[in-house]
Design goal:
alpha+beta, 2 domains, seven-stranded antiparallel β-sheet, 6 helices, 22 strands
Length: 414
């Protein structure tokens, strides 16, 4: 009876942990969306068709239409690399004033990018990749905060190739490529339904999310012990109306990515809505195009910092959409890559890191059943030992007592 009770208790522990960790078996499914994509939508100006100086004007618009709403993803290398997530009603349509876009100062004040009708926007947030940080790690700590020297490159100053040549409209993806520093690229992709990436770290995505993937190949550096970091600026709602606030959370997950046991999330909490947005990634990067456990490297994030508009890049599509960014909630975060003792960036001259931006709650993976059983066994084994040991002692005492009682009843027994 004791053993049965113990195993029932273990089963209860497994089920409780399984539910609390948000295991994928109990996750709600999201409806499928009809996804379409356009490039430089509605622009026939020379400004859009030929390089502006040495860089192409690239704006990739993905529309994911559902039953009750539409999620828009706007990605662009015009200025600083930027991704914008906009949730609208299904009757909303994108309008881009390309003449205004060409005049960088004007576009920041008069909303060159907007959705009509005006009240169709239900939620929006933006992620700006503002700076690439090249730092010298002479002490081999793999920590940006302990760098002995650093060189900062602004993404808005880089030149970009023609994004249109890389688009796969069936997969709703494309790649921004800059030859300015070597080969720096940002691949982006959106999805019609729930699924998972085919390559490590195999992030789980939904129709409400867009995947991004940075790759740094043969990037020039001035240092002998070089490592790289990326600065990310987060843009939220109107701070005068208690708009979006930002927070970092971490969820446990051991499935699909060997040796990586959690997912980092930045939550865009909107006071005017039950749901906000997110940026999500597993803290692992890879140093080879063929990814596996041996070439995985740690991704370090250094917390969120409140940011003033004076620190934000001078222009991007976030400026064109939001207008005056000083009226919005802004926060920044640095993310660096590498392990101590890994030979630095120079060991491979290649690094790739990916994540998600989206609307709603970040897709989560729970603990696998194997790990749950191991945890439960670890919790239950001491109880089994105590119960088993106690049972053996009781049985031995009972046997001795029976022998003693038998001797007392039959004294003639020798």
């Amino acid at each position: 009876m004791a053993d049965t009770t113990t195993w029932l208790g273990l089963l209860q522990i497994i089920c409780t942990i399984h539910l609390c960790t948000g295991s994928s078996g109990s996750e709600p499914s999201l409806s499928k969306r009809n996804v379409t994509s356009t490039f430089n939508e509605g622009c026939n100006m020379t400004f859009c068709l030929k390089p502006n100086g040495s860089s192409y004007i690239n704006l990739f618009h993905v529309t994911a239409k559902g039953e009750n709403d539409t999620i828009h993803f706007l990605w662009s290398s015009y200025g600083a690399l930027t991704g914008i997530v906009v949730r609208t009603t299904n009757d909303a349509s994108l309008r881009i004033d390309w003449k205004m876009m060409e005049k960088k100062e004007i576009m920041k004040e008069q909303n060159a990018i907007r959705f009509l009708p005006k009240d169709s926007v239900l939620f929006s947030s933006a992620v700006i990749f503002s700076r690439l940080i090249d730092f010298n790690d002479t002490d081999d700590t793999a920590s940006l905060s302990k760098a002995t020297a650093m060189n900062v490159r602004l993404f808005e100053n880089l030149s970009w190739d023609n994004f249109n040549l890389t688009i796969d409209h069936k997969k709703h993806q494309g790649r921004f490529v800059s030859p300015s520093l070597g080969n720096l690229s940002l691949m982006v992709q959106s999805f019609e339904d729930e699924g998972r990436g085919s390559l490590l770290p195999r992030l789980r995505h939904t129709s409400n999310s867009s995947y991004f993937e940075f790759a740094l190949k043969n990037i020039s550096t001035a240092y002998k012990q070089p490592r790289f970091a990326v600065e990310v600026i987060l843009v939220g709602g109107d701070k005068q109306q208690n708009g979006t606030s930002f927070s970092i959370s971490r969820s446990i997950a051991d499935q699909y990515t060997p040796s990586v046991f959690y997912v980092d999330n930045i939550n865009f909490a909107n006071s005017n809505s039950s749901q906000g947005g997110y940026m999500s990634w597993k803290p692992v990067a890879y140093t080879e195009e063929e990814r596996h456990l041996a070439n995985g490297r740690m991704v370090h994030q250094y917390g969120l910092n409140t940011t003033s508009v004076g620190y934000v890049p001078s222009y991007s599509i976030a400026h064109a959409f939001y207008g005056n960014l000083s009226q919005l909630n802004l926060s920044s975060m640095n993310v660096s890559f590498g392990n101590d003792g890994d030979g630095y960036y120079a060991a491979s001259n290649y690094l790739v890191w990916g994540g998600l931006i989206g609307y709603g709650e970040a897709p989560l993976d729970g603990l696998s059943m194997l790990i749950l059983i191991i945890i439960s066994a670890g919790l239950g084994l001491p109880a089994l030992l105590i119960l088993g040991g106690g049972s053996i002692i009781c049985l031995k005492k009972l046997a001795k007592k029976r022998n003693y009682d038998k001797l007392m009843v039959d004294p003639g027994v020798n």
